[in-house]
Amino acid sequence: DAKTTQPNSMESNEEEPVHLPCNHSTISGTDYIHWYRQLPSQGPEYVIHGLTSNVNNRMASLAIAEDRKSSTLILHRATLRDAAVYYCTDSRTGANNLFFGTGTRLTVIP
Amino acid sequence: GAVVSQHPSRVICKSGTSVKIECRSLDFQATTMFWYRQFPKQSLMLMATSNEGSKATYEQGVEKDKFLINHASLTLSTLTVTSAHPEDSSFYICSARGWLAGGADTQYFGPGTRLTVL
Asked: Is the model more confident about B28 or about A2?
């Protein structure tokens, strides 16, 4: 099974950037990296995905290391609504078999 | 786009009864759907992978006779918890595999169903 590791928790001040790290110890060359976030009592929400190049969308940016063993989710200006548990995943077979680690609980301080 | 719904959102039942949870992809067809379980303050645990028209594939340790999965159409999968017991109380989340622009695929998640067994 694919395995990712993340810090259990992080804090950020509102309106400041946040960098959420993830290690992808078993990633292979064709695995996409996906990030999801989960608000309390809700299903996970897709945030962003990438393969090798850095990616940007309206929610966040994704920076992928050259060896792909790590990735960083970047929230450019944290808001209170960004407080959630953030999960990084990678998969051997596309979006099948996404195994979620413990995730990072992000607290945004007003 | 890519909306997944679940029904019911919350259910309370007596021990020994069966509960059915529906998962629908509202605006896309999903040949593959997934069922997860999440206990308080824990991560999501994949229970089974459901492919339309075929039997579900269960993860190790998940009882297939207790958690019945049916994926009868490209937009509907159901999870039935049979003879539910208090230890089955959990947050059940489904997802559907869909494709993003550019060809990569991801999973779109439903809002979850909170099951409480008394």
From this structure: B28
Asked if residue B21 lies in contact with residue B6, where contact means CB atoms within 8 angstroms, the answer is: yes
Residues B89, B11: Cα–Cα separation, whole Å: 10
Distance from B15 to chain A by nearest Cα, in Å? 23
Cα–Cα separations (whole angstroms), residue B72 to A22, B48, B82: 37, 15, 19
Cα–Cα distance list, A94 to A22, A29, A47, B47, B49 (Å): 19, 12, 16, 18, 14
Q: Report DSSP state, residue A96.
A: B
B-chain residue closest to A50, CA distance: B104
Q: What is the pLDDT of residue B115?
A: 97
Q: Is the pLDDT of residue A17 over 70?
A: yes
Cβ-based interface (< 8 Å): residues of B facing A: 4, 6, 32, 34, 36, 43-46, 49, 91, 93, 95, 97, 100, 104-112, 114
Please give the pLDDT value at position B1: 64
